[in-house]
């Protein structure tokens, strides 16, 4: 069974000790980013970015640390309720959720015997909406890593369908944000021709993501693509090698995938791309979606 957990920062959250609530009832802003190691990111600009974000919910992936290893300003920052879901394998994966409002329920994992301790999924219930942070395995063709990715995808699609159905029965919406490690279409990566045999753009991976987004199957909507249907990208990950960032030779693999009712309320979606290479604190950029609730 998925794990129900305690939260960090409950004593100093919104509305407590004179701290004014920042959760806005009619607008929900959700930001997601793969931090590529939260301890490293904290030293390179994440702390300053966190202090300035207008997000109501923040989904982190690839945290790669136990909570006690994190500096206090990112482990339990003022004004946030935080749940960290580290991987059992030290120094790998790890996801976190930061919410301005105390969640009604928090769950780690999705009922998978193989993956619930792998630091790849955490979800929280807020009024009317379930928000989740996902770090889907990256894979590597011809290795056990790719087999693991395929197993994860099979289990996770079944869970996504059940979550959508359960939430609909409860009158709730869902948004799953994170590093999906799959570029769905040619418009989602610059060098698609050279990556057709590489993990992240394999036909079977793209077909699987298509099932997630099929109204008659998974039933979810890619919010950024729905708002920006005819553009290249916007890319969310660039290799540190070469001049990938300067040339905007990237991949769009960080997605906000929502149930149709919530996706229909999206009014804005954008990638917070750093102004320069030197200002990056991760090889990914934050992806922000704004919903009129």
From TrEMBL:
PROSITE patterns: AP_NUCLEASE_F1_4. Probably binds two magnesium or manganese ions per subunit. The active site is at residues 135, 179, 284. The keyword Hydrolase applies. It is an enzyme of class 3 (hydrolase). GO terms for biological process: DNA repair. Residues 32-284 form the Endonuclease/exonuclease/phosphatase domain. InterPro entries: AP_endonuc_1, Endo/exonu/phosph_ase_sf, Endo/exonuclease/phosphatase, ExoIII-like. GO terms for molecular function: double-stranded DNA 3'-5' DNA exonuclease activity; metal ion binding. Keywords: Hydrolase, Magnesium, Manganese, Metal-binding. The record marks 254 as: Important for catalytic activity. The record marks 181 as: Transition state stabilizer. Its cofactor is Mg(2+); Mn(2+). This is Exodeoxyribonuclease III. It comes from Streptomyces spongiae. The gene is xth.
